[in-house]
Amino acid sequence: METNQHILFYSDALASFNYGSNHPFKPARAKVFYELLNRYSLIFEENQRIMVPQKLDETLLRLFHTAEYIRLLKLCNAGEFTINMLDFGIGSGDNPVVAGMLDFALDAAGATYEGAMMLAGGRAAVVFNPHGGFHHARSDFAEGFCYVNDIAIAITALIHQGKRVAYCDIDAHHGNGVQEAFYEDRRVLTISLHESGESLYPWGGFVDETGSGDGKGFNVNIPFHAGTDDAIYLAAFDAVVPPLISAFRPDILFIECGGDAHKDDPLAHLNLTSRSYETVLKALKSLCPRIMATGGGGYDVHKTAAVWALTWAALCGIKMTDAFAGLVGGMMYGPEARISSLEDAPFRISGPEEKQCRKEADRVVDYIKKEIFPIHGLGTDLKSVPE
Ligand SMILES: [Zn+2]
Predict the structure, then answer these.
(1) What's the pLDDT tens digit per position in 119-176?
(2) Domain limits of the chain?
(3) pLDDT digits over 335-352, tens only?
(4) Nearest CA to 128 among 119, 115, 109, 114?
(5) Which of 6, 65, 135, 136 is catalytic?
(6) Which of 149, 135, 136 is nearest to 64 (CA)?
(7) Which of 152, 241, 314, 343 is a good FRET partner for 279, with 20 to 30 A between their CA atoms?
(8) Are 16 and 27 in contact (CB under 8 A)?
(9) Pick the CATH number of 6-376 from 3.40.800.20, 3.40.50.720, 3.40.50.80, 3.40.50.1820
(10) DSSP reduced 3-state for 190
């Protein structure tokens, strides 16, 4: 029987995990997000359900990760450091040895996996795991604050069940770990929209990385020039993403929803407002009846939480109302005091910066239409680059 269940995974314990006081990755974003859902009445619908993440069965790590890497993750979990861990990315500044790290990662990955299985089994229509989205983790290498690639594991399990999976990554950083996992596989359509690797880690994700072998044309990168705003981003998204996903006809659509493409993010350099997130999420929702969304990056805790609240509302198709409006004489209070509304004011770049960002986006879109669209049976009506 079909269901319209909307599942949110949330755990206070996971939101309390700490990478170290000077580390930019703050799992506490999830708690701020959760508080916003309550404040804006976004979690009280009859078909919405909150589930607590349960640990991924350790044997499932092998769907993506190597045995030696898993052995070292277990040592890391016990707070032990050995010098050879550095060959696997563990113990660096970005990916420190922290006691309990594997337990944290298994909880996060367990939620993404369980969500994917619920979608595959027809027990949910929308799942959001704000604790997941570790798209940089490689099969044998921790990087970009990611140790266990919850997305690669869950998608691998789904394709073993014969499902067609599309993946759309709107984090500011290229989804390199997920790209690597399915680079030669046409059962997964991988699309990453991100700031160009010329100005941002992981220094790749260029438009000509289109997959290889069987997977040729099933890996799509849409890199944006630093500074890109809503108008340029959304035009490129519209030109490329809906046609490709529609042609691919996925059973399940994964979305990595990092909040770091927001213009206030301290690590990345895109200029998106919440409008891009809302517009993109609504468009993606209309393209597939089964959605598995995860968190990801996002280093402005409050903006990331706000973007995720809007993401959740868009996925569930609900409007927000402010449960406390007027109760305290219009004064803002609490941890979200910086946010007068979840939605940002419009923002546009101009002058030479706008010209450069637009020119680069047009070049990328034209390349994809020329090189990738025909593989999916799509026309190639190229847009000429404007003056
Ligand atoms: Zn990121």
Answers:
(1) 999 999 999 999 999 999 999 999 999 999 999 999 999 999 999 999 999 999 999 9
(2) 6-376
(3) 444 445 789 999 999 999
(4) 115
(5) 136
(6) 149
(7) 152
(8) yes
(9) 3.40.800.20
(10) strand
Compute, in angstroms, the gap from residue 301 CA to the centroid of ligand 1.
13
Distance CA 83, CA 75 (A): 12
Instruction: Kindly report the backbone phi and psi dihedral angles of residue 5, in degrees, each rounded to the nearest multiple of 5, phi listed first.
Output: -65, 135
Distance 46 CA to ligand 1 centre (A): 33
Q: Give pTM, 2 decimals.
A: 0.94
CA of 4 to the centre of ligand 1 (A): 30
Is residue 65 within 8 A of residue 150, CB to CB? The reply is no
Residue 76 CA to ligand 1 center (angstroms) comes to 23
Q: What's the rounded Cα separation, in Å, for the pair 97 and 137?
A: 15
* Secondary element (H or E) of residue 189: strand 188-195
Residue 87 has pLDDT above 80, yes or no: yes
Q: How far is the CA of 147 from the centre of ligand 1 (A)?
A: 14
| Phi, psi values for residue 300, rounded to 5° | -100, 105
Q: What is the pLDDT of residue 387?
A: 40
Tokens read off for 220: 């799509």
Distance 207 CA to ligand 1 centre (A): 18
**Are the C-beta atoms of 217 and 211 separated by less than 8 Å?**
yes
* Cis bond upstream, residue 202 (ω within 30): yes
Question: Strand pairing partners for 262?
Answer: 272
Q: Can you tell me the distance from the alpha carbon of 210 to that of 217, in angstroms, rounded to the nearest whole number? A: 5
Q: How far is the CA of 138 from the centre of ligand 1 (A)?
A: 15
Among left, alpha and beta (phi > 0; psi -120 to 50; other), residue 151 is alpha
The one-letter code for the residue type at 312 is: W
Q: Which of 4, 6, 8 has the alpha carbon at shortest distance from 308?
A: 8
pLDDT at 3: 84
> Quick one: pLDDT band at residue 330, thresholds 50, 70, 90?
very low
| 136 catalytic per annotation | yes
* Integer Cα distance of 341 and 346 in angstroms: 13
